[in-house]
Amino acid sequence: MEQKHALGRRKSAVARVYAVPGKGSIVINGRELADYFKEASLQYIVNQPLDVTGTAGQFDIKVTLVGGGTKGQAEAVRLGIARVLCEIDKEAYRPALKAAGFLTRDPREVERKKPGQPGARRRFQFSKR
Q1: Residue 57 belongs to a domain with what CATH number?
Q2: What is the helix (H) or strand (E) element at residue 6, kind and residue range?
Q3: Quick check: is 95 in a domain?
Q4: Helices (H), 1-129
Q5: What is the three-class DSSP state of 70?
């Protein structure tokens, strides 16, 4: 099998994920997973698609991450890994990933701040007199 790739997005984070058969290493922007995401919860989010499909340790995954914060980046990587697993073998992995909700792109983005008010929805206090 040659290299497969997929794209994962969440908020303003974009993850380009590349997978080849290997020993199960995950490298993000040239750093190991544990080095890039220090929090165990973020490492867990990244590994979820591999755990659900039972493919942990079968593929070497290389990720290029741009933009966003740590949580958004972790969820972008999760979506990218789920999509690349579907590229590898759709019949085997898609039902489990779909049931877990890992193939759904979360479309929520930060709403822009509007002029003449302190935030996106927040207004300055109204004074009648």
Answers
A1: 3.30.230.10
A2: strand 4-10
A3: yes
A4: 33-36, 40-53, 70-88, 90-100
A5: helix
List CB contacts of 72: < 8 A, sequence separation 6 or more.
Answer: 10, 11, 12, 13
The length of the chain is 129
Instruction: Quote the pLDDT of residue 90.
Output: 87
Residue 92 CA, distance from chain mean position: 21
CA torsion sign, 82 to 87 to 93 to 99?
A: positive
With tokens 């206090």, the residue in question is 125
In percent, the amount of the chain with pLDDT more than 90 equals 94
* pLDDT single digits (tens) 81-101: 999 999 999 889 999 999 999
**pLDDT band at 79, cuts 50/70/90?**
very high
